[in-house]
Amino acid sequence: KCRTRRRQVRECTGGAHHHEGMSSDEELTPTEVTEFQNRRDSILEDSRKIFEDVHEDFCDIRKILLKFQEWKEKLPDSYCDAYISFCLPKLLNPLIRVQLINWNPLEQNFTELKEMPWFKAIEEFSDAKNVSEPK
């Protein structure tokens, strides 16, 4: 009933922007689109400020992982005793989340996760970890 009524209203008023199969309840008004974009821009601006007062060595995933790699090579027993493999996901989580704020896999030209710098850094660290471990 509701769908038929909305279709009749659209036909009478000339509502041309409707996509068949999509409920008009799901369509955003221009005001809602503008409000969403303003909120999104504000969040992105705030996210750029999160690490502005942090030393560069502690907000770059590659540099952090290099420190852990050095630790592992110089003091392997201490590294192993600290259970670093369990700590790294929690340590890197906030850094990765900030980098993913603007990521949208539903956009046409989105970057694959495997192509992101943080993913490559973790992958390299994992490869180096596997190479240096005795078998």
Descriptors:
135 residues; mainly alpha; 6 helices; DNA binding; GCFC_dom; nucleus; GCFC2-like; GCFC2 factor
Commentary on this structure:
It is elongated, with a radius of gyration of 24 Å. Helix content is 62%, strand content 0%. The chain is mostly helical. The chain has a domain at 58-130. The mean pLDDT is 83. One of its GO terms (molecular function) is DNA binding. Its main location: nucleus. It is found in: Nucleus. Residues 62-124 form the GCF C-terminal domain.
What are the SSEs and their pairings?
Elements (H helix, E strand, L loop, with lengths): L1 H12 L16 H20 L11 H14 L1 H6 L2 H16 L17 H16 L3
Helix pairs in contact: 3-6
Taking the alpha carbons of the first and last residues, their distance comes to 68 Å
Helix count equals 6
Binned, the helix content reads: 55-70%
Biggest β-sheet: count, sense, barrel? none
Helix-strand makeup class: mainly alpha
Number of strands: 0
Helix/strand order: HHHHHH
GO molecular function: DNA binding
Protein name: GCFC2 factor
Family: Belongs to the GCF family.
Subcellular location: Nucleus
Write a concise synopsis of the structure shown:
The chain has 135 residues and is mainly alpha-helical. Helix content is 62%, strand content 0%.
